[in-house]
Write a structure and sequence with these properties.
With 223 residues, the protein is an alpha/beta fold. It contains eight helices and six strands, in the order ααβααβααβαββαβ. Bound molecules: zinc ion. Zinc ion binds next to helix 2.
């Protein structure tokens, strides 16, 4: 083995090439997503996200398909804070700017405490914080809270999700910031919209003027 090859092998051992977060293909640079998977990110048009009940209008950046799913999974469960947001958030920010909702503050859909502790970070808050910064809006993290009762939404049917969501979300310890304001509610993914709808209902009860929704991805055709 010549010196150059030996050097390359050592380099591979010390700095292993990263793999595509979506298809696991090896990548020459630590960029996280291969070109093929990046091309399969499907942007959604404004009209493709129907606002759920209690929400005035909604924007989602991408369709919740293969690549967006893999990126959001990496963000929520694998501890990749930075890359998925770097790839998905700019379009959401741009679309929200285009939509020009008359919003005055950002509120994240609250994460439940056991999941927050097991992950070590609050992913919707992280998202809300970055959006708040980009849009120049304050973020009220604790206007809403996730109650202990209720099951996880994942895996439930539409009717069950709706019932469950109403039980799960409630008034948080610091709700006063939302009074009289139009609120941008932020979530990572919407499927049936039951979570957003339940959170919006609580915000309206707390005195919010109106609730708008922004999320990274949406399953189109489900309402
Ligand atoms: Zn790939």
């Amino acid at each position: 083995m010549d010196l150059e090859r030996a050097g390359r092998r050592l380099n591979d051992v010390l700095f292993p090439p990263s793999r595509c977060l979506c298809c696991q293909k090896k990548l020459p640079l630590r960029e996280g997503l291969c070109e093929e998977c990046a091309a399969e990110l499907i942007p959604l048009r404004f009209s493709e996200t129907l606002p759920p009940e209690n929400v005035v209008s909604a924007v989602s950046a991408y369709s919740y398909d293969k690549t967006a799913k893999a990126l959001i999974h990496a963000f929520k469960y694998k501890g990749w804070f930075d890359l998925p947001l770097r790839l998905l958030l700019p379009r959401l920010t741009e679309e929200l700017k285009k939509a020009a909702f008359p919003v005055e503050a950002v509120v994240p859909v609250p994460t439940n405490l056991p999941r927050l502790y097991s992950r070590g970070f609050d992913h919707t808050y992280l998202l809300a914080k970055q959006l708040g910064k980009a849009l120049g809006l304050p973020v009220y993290r604790r206007a809403l809270r996730r109650r202990w009762h209720g099951r996880r939404q994942v895996g439930l049917g539409a009717a069950e999700r709706k019932e469950n969501a109403v039980l799960i979300y409630g008034r948080g310890p610091f709700p006063d910031g939302v009074i009289g304001k139009n609120i941008l509610l932020v979530d990572d993914v919407t499927t049936t919209g039951s979570t957003a709808s339940a959170c919006a209902a609580v915000l309206l009860t707390l005195g919010a003027k109106g609730v708008y929704l922004g999320c990274l991805a949406h399953t189109p055709g489900v309402s």
